[in-house]
Amino acid sequence: MTNRQAIILFVTVVGIGLLLYIPSLQPGSGWYNAAEFHAAAMTLDVTHSPGYPLFTRLGNLAIRFGPLLWPGHPPAWYVNMVAALAGTLGAGVFAIWLHIGGVPPLLAGSAAVWMLTFTTFWEEATLGEVYTLEILLLSLFFVGVWRTRSKPPGFWDAALPGFIFGLGLSHRPTFGPLSLVALLMFAVSIFRSPRRTEAAMGAVFGFAVGLLPTYDLYIRLQNPNRVLTDPLTGLGLAGLWSVFTAAEFRVGLGVFTLPEILARTRDWAKLMFENGGPAALVLPWLALRRRVPDADTSLISEASVAEYNPQIWVLGWMFAFNTLFIINYNAFEAPTMLLPSMIGITGLAAHGLHSLRGKRGRRLTGWALAIVAAVSALVSAHNIEPRDQSAELWARRMAAILPPGVSLLVSNDVEFRPFWYLRLAQKFRPDMQLRLIDKIDDDGLNMIAADLSRHAVAGSLIYPANLREKLMERFDLFNIGYLTFVKSVDSKQLELSSEACENTITLADNARIRLASSALPRFMPDANGNIVMPASNTVFPGDLLFYRYTLENIGRDIGNVIIGAVLVGPEGRLFSQNGILLGHDMHAALDGVCPAGNRASEASHKIESLRALIVPDDIPPGRYELRLILCRSSNSGFMSLPVDHLEGLNLLNEDGATEVFRLRNGLAGRQMLRAVPTWKDLKAVAGDFPGMASTPISLGFFDIAERKS
Hints:
By secondary structure, the chain is α+β, with helices and mostly antiparallel strands.
């Protein structure tokens, strides 16, 4: 291959990738690791294991110098651009490597572009994740190794792949096993070289220089002011080794039973089908065909009738190792780590198509793969997550109803990172104290009690799973949309006017429920912090609808009552996503009341509740009625509604997607309920409630309008 051909192939692939990625670049931060990488790039803090020092250094440089080229963007945008550039450059180098191995330019370029259009690859490359940098380093290493196979390597010929291998290990230790076959080929090339000693010294020298990011990680780990990870983690050489090898994450390997592994394998195949189309499951197998000699095999290094192309061994091992690793690894967002499997699929497909006989047939296969890549681009452009900064949007909504000086209980993996990024980037709510609550014990409860003596305490209470249960041993909880506030059991109850509740229902033991007669909206900010005040009785997705009720003469019977407000659309339709009913606030009547307070047994006691229903994101615009519903929790119909999992989720990311779904929809303290299509169906499941009239209790009509970006 001439230099001119290589440049044309490289520029074409990179140019197509940038045309796809730059317009779809996430404008801000995201969930999980994305916000952590953005914060670490700003402060050079240390992320979770293995620390990713190379990526955060590159991100830091992009934040410092990127505004000189592209001014006017938030810090996260520049880090997202680093990931996009790494992905596109990696694809360009990958195309060159395939062509060096004998794949025609059109076929090699089409395979590289196809890899860029896998939905997961596209999302990772436009959201500031670290995995596209691994693809770039793998591709560079493969090209460097192939150069040593074409001629006997000397010092500098071996130093280059050694350097890239060191960088790859510094970035992510899995680089070692992923590139194992290529590494063995590199070692063989050095051993066969007449200048083997010189070449070996060059490889060692390059490798040592490539490990400089690991030294950088060691220096950063000694900083006692780290925030993203526990400052006691990673101290000294032993700590560096623990972080670098991700010791705390190794417990997630080998935890699945055989049926679970089979189910995850099925979902892996489904994910690949959805990412790259049916070609992703069919074409790679063509690479297992034996090659036959013809005029085109002259480009294939060391190829003969009974051999596979050496690149097939490199790609096959990388694909098999990474796929088996992910299927057997219990981790949130496991699909984000599947990019090496995707480079394996597309590379094997290119070699498989190239193995088909005849020059004309091979030209047709090149165009066929180009069509596959084009269709994949169209499908993925539609399927990638919306560029709506949903994590930042959620954080702003959470903070919108928090009083000054509040202590906010947050989990480290999901909730803390968007808040911390916003604080670093925009000095967002510096009055708010962020309390990590990944586990709850007596010390944590004492900390919350101390905070309550000074100011308000609130949180989503989504994670950990036992957080609400532990808090209710000592505190009252009351839910306001996205948040649950923690209250001392002896704190003063909410002051509600007597006009707030007009519909009264009396239970068998003389307990009474006085239900609200109207609801009031509270408008939430958008991702930029702006609040739009719409016309009267108009609300936007994400806004809150407040309503009230009072429990009087509390007896035992009231503990079995479910109370809820439900948004009912045109023709009585209800809104749902992933098989889960949204646009409701169905909860137990004594939800959040601490049993230790003994108030539920005091017949004269009155509990006044202020609740808020969330208008769901993506709800169709239209006119909706907010209705109240009551039922018994022991009702077999209602008992069929609560569910634990969303429908249609891939097992490789079931827990993570469920947690984000619950956060975005404010489902803390509320059970997820199976979707029912209409109000009539919901009433049929809930059954008749004694004392309620046949006419629904209406809290008002609201026009839901589409929120303009």
